[in-house]
Amino acid sequence: MLFNTIDYIIFLPVVIIGYYLIAPKYRWVLLLAASYYFYMCWKLEYIFLILISTLIDYLCGIQMSKHESKKKRRPYLILSLVSNLGILVGFKYFNFFSENIRLLFEKFDVSVDLPILEFLLPVGISFYTFQTLSYSIDVYKGKQKAERHLGIFALYVAYFPQLVAGPIERFSRLAPQLKQHHKLEYDNLANGFRLIIFGLFAKMVIADNLGLYVNQIYEQPEIYHSFSIGCGLIFYSFQIYGDFFGYSLIAIGSAKLMGVNIMDNFNTPYLSRNIAEFWQRWHISLSTWFRDYLYYPLGGNRVKVLRWIFNILIVFVISGFWHGANLTFLFWGLVFALAYIIEKGVNHFLSLPKPENSLTLARLLLSVKTFIIVTIAWVFFRSQTIETAFDMFYYLGNNNSGDYQNLPAGTIMWVVLSLFLLTDLLLFNTRFDKWIQSKSLFVRWFIYFLLIFTIIVFAGVEEFAFIYFQF
Amino acid sequence: MIWTKITYRLLALITGLIAMNFIYERWFHESDLQLHSSVINKIRAVSEETKVLYLGESSNNTFRSGESDERSISTMIDSLLPKVKVSGITNEASHSGIYKTLLKNIDEDIDVVVITLNSRSFGAGWKYSSLETPLQKSMVMLQNYPPLLNRLLLSFKNYDIKSAEERSKQVLAAWSEEYLSFEGARPYSTTNSWDYHMAITGIKDSSGQRNQAKTELACHYIKSYAFELDTVNDIRIKDFDEIIRFARSKKWKVVLNLLAENTDKADLLVGSDLLAIMERNRKKIVDYFQSRNVAVVDNYYEVRDSSFIDQNWTTEHYDQFGRMTIAQNVADEIRRQFYSKH
Question: Are residues A30 and A159 in the same domain?
């Protein structure tokens, strides 16, 4: 079930009404059933993967909690890691490895017949796998007590607002809220709906409309003028932002209706001064996951320079690989890693002062630089192959004559894009629900109606699944 | 307190939506109709004097280049019934699900609706065709809801939306899972296995060589016509039932125009097994609708191979003689049933 469908518009209020009607101690049953139903709407049989993952991590957590020493806990952590990553690798990376091993052997004139598995990638597998892994690692480290209530643990893994594309929540944040007896509060309802409406706007109006032009450019870059290709690349930066930011807001808003606070996943990332800040503002739940469970254990920045460079490379490359089994994602990670390292180096050697954390002209100028780097990285992210990505850059540089076509982006497109840019400036370091709360009743309702009208009337009509669902 | 707050806000929202509907209808609706459901223009073009409305797909107006009579079937019927105004709406690849929505947008005071009944449209290849998603999408704005609600349903993709890949999977599943019945044992039991069998054995020409073009065409005939129509569960049948109910509620008479299929070629390429299935499906369709007191013009065997324009594909595109045969049969039925004094 997708957030931007009539099915979800019906499903969500039914769940919310049921949630507040039934006794708090049974709410987990309703939410778990709703979450499994939500997932099974997509593909029934893949619910078993979630069930397996849930049971293994639940039991491993219980077993780890019985032992004080890490040494005795370790086998259960390994079991959890192997089973979760095994499922992830099996479904997501098997064909990638299989194909690349075959190609490698082919270079030495050796024919290897490795199987190619033909099944759909389970939606959200990377998200819920990382979520359960964080639990197992925290229990192993003693940071988290093992959950004894199987229902609550299963709900933590499968909680529908953030099941298929995050935010990737930690057990210590989400589970206590799932156990809490939330009362029906007006502010939760109001803020929840505010976030959902703004999320739908970002996804349906911004991302889906831009997607049309982006697809045209990526399908036949050779026929378009450099300027149009440049616009297409910029459009993709906003498409993926609108898409994922919109999804995250709907997820956060849906949970908010139940009184549950899910962590923010975005904070005006395109207003970042540098790549390091960008990753503190973009897909925050994933970058903090990598920081806590990979970067810090590798030593973080409290190591020698070469080792630090190695750590950065590892984190970004694995982050790229997390997104998908394709070399394009590895390049995407590498571009970020190199940009990150170079920026840090330049700042260090030039002893540049840290700019203020406010919306100044200096920040805006720096954010343009960051945006250009990020847009270059997105070319690898969007392209199906490395060759396509380099072709895009080639055509961007060479299609300068009048023989090439212009992208037929309509006025409405530019208007909504400008509106979105404006909202990003207005929402700097704040969230839509908080920002709008400070406005007068008249302004608030004017904005609500404007957003609702825009969503209904100007939403893109071509189907674009949420981009991050594929991960 | 909280319920009062919620009630006030819900009322404000409803008022706002009503105002938005007005704004949308006044300034945006028409351009959306033209953009997403341009078939509305064909409905609007139906003249007010129309008494007989002919709904068809490409069979209505496809002609062979260089023909002396390039008129559509509906225009031919119009000339055959000089005292009754006959108009046609042609929408490519349409079927009962689409006709249903089109009919609900007809405001004219008509007597009779003639609806094209294409037996191939009951097969998996058409039911799950990749054309289905754009067709369904084009109907959303034509539903009988307030314009803003129609646009909301379009924005939230509230129609049968599937990718070409998903459609193709549906077709393959139907072809491999639905069993065909034959008199006696056959080395094939489903459309898929029959198609495979034909592809392997092939059609040989007089010199004993495999004729690849004919073999491919035979396979195509199998995929188009080898299915067992289930009149109880078929979605097309259900749509036709709804059309009949709707037409009766508007006091329109319904004539179903069962189109001719190229049975000559089916016999030549595949043989009696396929003809038997085609006949069984034809009979099921005719019996089903006649038992519901609907007039069915049975043209199934009425057009010969030479009158089919597309010789290398299965279509219901006829030359002028084929179209005239169909038009004559339909006109005769309309005259006999409803305008005997004309």
Answer: yes
